[in-house]
Amino acid sequence: MQAKKRYLALLSAAASLVLLFCLGGVQVPATSSSRGGGGGGGPGRRRHPAAERPWPRFSDPLPSFAPPESHSDAAAEEEAEERGAHSSPRLKRDVNSSVYRARRCRMESCFDFSACERNGFKVYVYPQQKGDKISESYANILSAIEGSRFYTSDPGQACLLVLGLDTLDRDQLSPQYVHNLKGKVQGQPLWNGGRNHLIFNLYSGTWPDYTEDLGFDIGLAMLAKASVGAENFRPGFDVSIPLFSKEHPRAGGERGSLRSNTIPPFRKYVLVFKGKRYLTGIGSDTRNALYHVHNAEDVVLLTTCKHGKDWQKHKDARCDRDNAEYDKYDYREMLHNSTFCLVPRGRRLGSFRFLEALQAACVPVMLSNGWELPFSEVINWNTAAVIGDERLLLQIPSTVRSIHQDKILALRQQTQFLWEAYFSSVEKIVLTTLEIIQDRVFQHTSRSSLMWNSHPGGLFAMPQYSVYLGDFPFYYAQLGVKPYPKFTAVIHAVTPLVSQSQPILKLLTAVAKSHHCAQIIILWNCDKPLPAKHRWPATSVPVIVIEGENKVSSHCCETGGFFLESPVPRSVDFAFTVWQSFPERIVGYPARSHFWDSNKERWGYTSKWTNDYSMVLTGAAIYHRYYHYLYTNYLPASLKNMVDQLANCEDILMNFLVSAVTKLPPIKVTQKKQYKETMMGQSSRASRWADPDHFAQRQTCMNKFASWFGTMPLVHSQMRLDPVLFKDQVSILRKKYRDIERL
Amino acid sequence: MSALWRSSERAAAACVRALGGPAAKWLSRIVGFSMCASVKYGSRGPALIPRMKTKHRVYYIALFSVVLLGLIATGAFQFWPHSIESAAEWSVDRRSVHDAPLVRLPANSPIPERGDLSCRMHTCFNVYSCGYNPKNRIKVYIYPLQRYVDELGTPISSTGLSREYNELLSAISDSDFYTDDVSRACLLVPSIDVLNQNSLRVRETAQALAMLPRWDRGTNHLLFNMLPGGPPDYNTALDVPRDKALLAGGGFSTWTYRQGYDVSIPVYSPLSAEVDLPERPPGPRRYFILSSQTALHREYRGELERLKEENGEAVLLLDKCSNLSQGAVSSRKRCYKSQVFDYPQILQESSFCVVLRGARLGQAILSDVLQAGCVPVILADSYILPFSEVLDWKRASVVIPEDKLPEIYTILKGIPHRQVEEMQRQARWFWDAYFRSMKAIGLTTLQIINDRIYPYAARSYEQWNNPPVVQWSSVNSPLFLPLIPPRSPGFTAVVLTYDRVESLFRVITEISKVPSLAKLLVVWNNQNKSPPEESLWPKINVPLKVVRTKENKLSNRFFPYDEIETEAVLAIDDDIIMLTSDELQFGYEVWREFPDRLVGYPGRLHLWDHEMGKWKYESEWTNEVSMVLTGAAFYHKYFNYLYTYKMPGDIKNWVDAHMNCEDIAMNFLVANITGKAPIKVTPRKKFKCPECTAIDGLSLDQTHMVERSECINKFASVFGTMPLKVVEHRADPVLYKDDFPEKLKSFPNIGSL
Q1: Where would I find the Exostosin GT47 domain in this sequence (chain B) (predicted)?
Q2: Could you tell me the pLDDT band of residue A209, with boundaries at 50, 70 and 90?
Q3: Peptide bond before A208: cis, by omega within 30 degrees of 0?
Q4: CA atoms within 13 A on the CB side of B48
């Protein structure tokens, strides 16, 4: 027994020793082998062990890489200057522009800035020649430019020129292909070697190799091209645009399909793809390998061999199996029920699938090596897509599975933001292209990456307004700053309003009392002369009177908010504190609503008391002064002229604009309900409200605006914001906004 | 027996193979022997053990001590020789570069091809060697130092290893990126110093590169160069033929920079190590524009002088001092006529500093300017700014075409002063994070390449560009998309209950009347009692699920149960029977308009108690609100997930231990991540029902209030800030209290306190 025990003890000791050595030993080989490999087969293969540690600490004094005495640059420069050999910088620039042309074009060498500086960023579109047929997509592009604020009909004013010839489809086998484009283009009198021209293209090259050649010499022209490869892309000069279909709407466009953020953010499938597999020609290396990754459960990657007429001739061993699997799934269903969507290259680098996935809030997984992603110059695609490598196809499933759900949530929301900001219509794609070029031309007033990549996006954030992000209503949270705690009151005095100047002066006194008021601007548009000096009330804030002008220049005020026009709500302060919580929205008092009149097939306008609203009248409203700028500079002249002629609807247009930017309803605060009645007596609106035409006009306006926006941007809200103790049965002394209680 | 020996020997041999190296050879015998022993007795073992039952203790003690001994012995064996080795390393550490082996380059040794301008990551970079790894981090190998000489014995470089390149390589080798195993490396960094092309013999350097053992046409090799080109035409990229190697270069132009392949790096300024310029708060400075470069082309200098004439004092135009005695100091002095200024200190006196191109595009002065928090005005057409792939230079600099040099005064005057301050801060932050040392430059370069290889794990724009102060004060809400979710999916009511069954049933019956209720989830927090039988529950027309919890914790109410299938969650206590169906439905409608906020009924406020010097909880009639009670509140299911898994510090445990303040914690959490205040709906001030008498007295209880105040202080200290936002509004239905027929109102039944 004792002996056995001893043996047992020995046994276990030995066993543990062996175990420990074997386990512990794993570390030894790792270090020893690496030490051997440190020499890397070079001459120092067997050296002192110490030499093989990472990077040694050297004790000797080492020289600087650029010793100050011969700070090579400076010294050389001086020397050169003395010798007169160093060419003048201007000369050097000229040399650049003669050397770097065609495929090596950059803005510095191929673009003429002078026209833009003279006249601003204006775009000219060539008139269409008789007999030239252009495709629907190209017609949409041209009309988007013509409808934009950049358009000019005078080529002499133009900074950028766009051909009237359809260059979208340069696939020789396509029915849309325009023949003899070369000759036609060269024949254009303004062509000038292509300088300052912008050429749109969606398809280039043809079977079997699909090169990116357009079939004519574009010279110094810029390319806005879909499916462009990094090799052919001239950074900072060309613009990569997305591939869009014939059916892509001209303006407005569908909203993203994400309606809510589900938690956890996973959908039925992890990764899906459904598409053709080409049996001949290029573009299918990746697609041919997809079946390796397909698992028919949550990773569903389907290919079909059916394309063209004679696919049977080339079909391979997998075709039948693939085709059968392919027919089992519905593309739409998969698209909307998958977390990730594979976007592999097709014949060309880009495919329709990209935009489809983006809209469907299915995070695109790019497998298209070398594709310069759409608007990559400004969009940070890492925040909305997973950029994969075709060479690492087999890793894709584990890669996407490793993405944390918080990240998925963010990626998905970003797809929706980008889709709605830049891609949902041809107009947006075209405007984004133009804005990118404009940013290059006026480099010091251009958008920062933050403006392009966060809500509301680059089209609504105009850097010409200010280069300081805190001057916009959108970035307070991201920058960690607060809106300016003061407002400027703008009082608009129009002719019939002031039969006597009394109401205006009363209003002035009331507004000036507000703690948040920084200054008051009075726009005096009356036939009557200004009231005499002594009749003006004494105010603690500066009062500026501008006579005979209708609009306030948006740079007039340092303050954040605008308080507009006449009537006198007593609760300016309350509305202003509400606005500080929602600086990107309009905060106002009387509200209106819109509805879809299905009988008349058009939008209706109502001023009835309803349980919801979608507009607030800007007769008295607080909004960020940036919207003033946007109103003046973003909207096209056609709409603004219409408003001016009618002397009506400007408030509707403002509501349209702000809701289009924010995608949210305005905010209504507690209001004095007698507003209308009291106003009737004194305002010019009195007569206007009574006028039945006035109402019809507003209806017409709404429909005009909706058609320009391409969609109805207004959103309904069912709530109103009141002070916390509003109408509560508690001593009025406890209440901060007592005035409101008495309404 | 012999078979046994053989197998054990094989096992031992396996061990030895694993151990590797001759040092472990002697082990094989011992191991082999003991293995044999173990096998031998192992065969009889099972029969032995049952008979030993009575003496278990002794046996186990023995076994334990033996194992312990074995462990100690192994440990000693493992670490003893190793420690000696590292000590040896330490002592040899202070080595000289002259000890590095000498390599003689044959005159006819091959030269790599010139850099290929069409190289991109997907064409020239071998991504397979980086592999898939859970940390998403590339591995970088550094070649050991060698001294290259040509056949005549002349070194290929006049300086050899420079101080800066040495710093760079040490930094890499100390970093997480480093590997000493060349076979696992994704990126290889030669130890041949090419920072300054002027000190190189181009042809021989190229030959040396080609001789690197893993050169393979330069694939996955990374070269660092700061001063490219040489007279007279100063190319903008390193002239050394380098085939497919990546180039981290200072001074790329748009024509030589391979976008997405090369990395544009700053030209390091050795001054930054010498001079300590403490950060200066942003604000107006004495001079508006400063030019301090010494070797400007006369054309530029002429234009600057004209600028000075026009704008006088606002512009300071410095040059090197001609009258000073030559010496090392001269690089630290600048002069305007006879006035002498200290450089780089003078940079801190100006709002904008001109950085003009010289013969090269990249200028070391950019680094000095950033360090001084002076906004660089960069005039260098076609220059690719340092790290422009990730840094948003528009927030830290003004880039102006060279042609517009005469207009810079007007252009700069047009920049709002707040933006100037913003840029000053940003400039300094860029220097602190990415310019200040060779280490910063090197590691940033590697991080950029890392981001390309693992784009899905790349650092975000905010991480790259937001200075710490902004990172701290800014919020990036996880629910950032402006969405108003559709009404149809409705909400899930989550009722937390312990044993108040009767009250619970009333709550269920009441809530079930709310039109948008989609599902009811009862969280049964009582482990000692089972929930009532199914037949006893009220009959309602939405699904009702009961979840039993393992522990009676308050946190259970905020768990992201899979049963919650809607976005909207209504958290509700089992005694909240006073809320009308209109109130609840309206609450849901308001939540739809603010899906990223807490939407609740009674509001509460936090106040700063000046006497006590701490936060105080307030439930009296106030004009302000900063929290809503979660006794009944709508919120996004995402916040359940956050509460359960991302709650900072020990707040969750604190809440569970105190059985209180879970609502305050939720308010903190939501306000902190979204930066937004909650929304109080309807006038309701208390959860009070006629028949609940003193139970609700809980809220009135003085000690309760003290505890709630304590919670606020505790949470504020854990969050490191007070995230709660105070507002003065509440949400009511549009027609609330309006003189309007009640029956036409959507939510008439609202208004009790």
Answers
A1: 135-413
A2: confident
A3: yes
A4: 18
User: What is the 3 state secondary structure string of A291-310?
Assistant: HHCCCCCCEEEEEECCCCCC
pLDDT at A19: 57
Alpha helices in A191-241 (DSSP H): none
Reported as a single tens digit per residue, the pLDDT across A397-425 is 999 999 999 999 999 999 999 999 999 99
Identify the pLDDT of residue B700. Answer: 57
Site of tokens 């292909």: A177
B481 contacts A455 by C-beta, under 8 angstroms = yes
| HEC letters along B245-301 | CEEEECCCECCCCCCCCCEECCCCCCHHHHCCCCCCCCCCCCEEEEECCCCCCHHHH
Quick: pLDDT tens for B166-189.
999 999 999 999 999 999 999 999
Q: Which residue in chain B is spatially nearest to A63 when comparing CA positions?
A: B162
Tokens representing residue B253 in the block: 């132009």
C-alpha dist (Å) from residue A708 to A252, A595, B687: 8, 18, 50
Distance from the A360 Cα atom to the nearest Cα atom in chain B, whole angstroms: 15
Nearest CA-CA distance, residue A653 and chain B, Å: 21
User: Residue A471 catalytic?
Assistant: no
pLDDT digits (tens, 9 = 90+) for B87-116: 444 444 567 888 888 899 998 888 998 878
The C-alpha angle A662, A141, A644, rounded to 5 degrees, equals 55
Identify which of A488, A470, A487 has the alpha carbon closest to the alpha carbon of residue A479: A470
Number of neighbours of residue B722 by Cβ within 10 angstroms: 18
List, as ranges, residues 461-480 from A with C-beta within 8 Å of B. Answer: 466-471, 477-480
pTM of the model: 0.87
The CA distance from B250 to the nearest CA of chain A, in Å, is 13
Residue percentage of chain B with pLDDT more than 90: 62
Distance from C-alpha of B417 to C-alpha of B425, rounded to nearest angstrom:
12
Q: CA torsion A447→A453→A459→A463, rounded to 10°?
A: -20
pLDDT at A658: 96
Put simply, the chain B residues between 507 and 536 with a CB less than 8 A from any chain A CB are none
How many angstroms separate the CA atoms of A520 and A557, rounded?
10
Could you give the 3-state DSSP secondary structure of residue A64? coil
Option in B360, B474, B734 nearest A480 (CB): B474
Q: Rounded distance, CA A259 to CA B487, Å? A: 10
Q: Is the CB of A8 less than 8 angstroms away from the CB of B41?
A: yes
According to DSSP, the residues that pair with A523 across neighbouring strands are A492, A546
**Catalytic residue, candidates A238, A573, A651, A722:** A651
Q: What is the pLDDT of residue B165?
A: 94
DSSP letter for B734, please: T
Spatial separation of the C-alpha atoms in residues A446 and A439, rounded to whole Å: 5
List, as ranges, residues 229-248 from A with C-beta within 8 Å of B: 230-231, 235-236
Nearest beta carbon to residue A259 from set B85, B479, B485: B485
> Mean pLDDT lowest for which of A269-283, A517-531, B260-274?
A517-531
Is the confidence at residue A234, as pLDDT, over 70? yes
Nearest to A416 among B259, B481, B484 (CB): B481
> What tokens does A724 get?
């916390």
Helix B25-42 vs helix B2-19: crossing angle, to nearest 10: 140
Question: A58-67, A525-534, A551-560, B266-275: which range is least confident on average?
Answer: A551-560
* Tokens representing residue B78 in the block: 């493992």
Three-state SS for B323-359 is CCCCCHHHHHEEEECCEEEECCHHHHHEEEEEEECCC
Q: Does B718 touch chain A (CB under 8 A)?
A: no
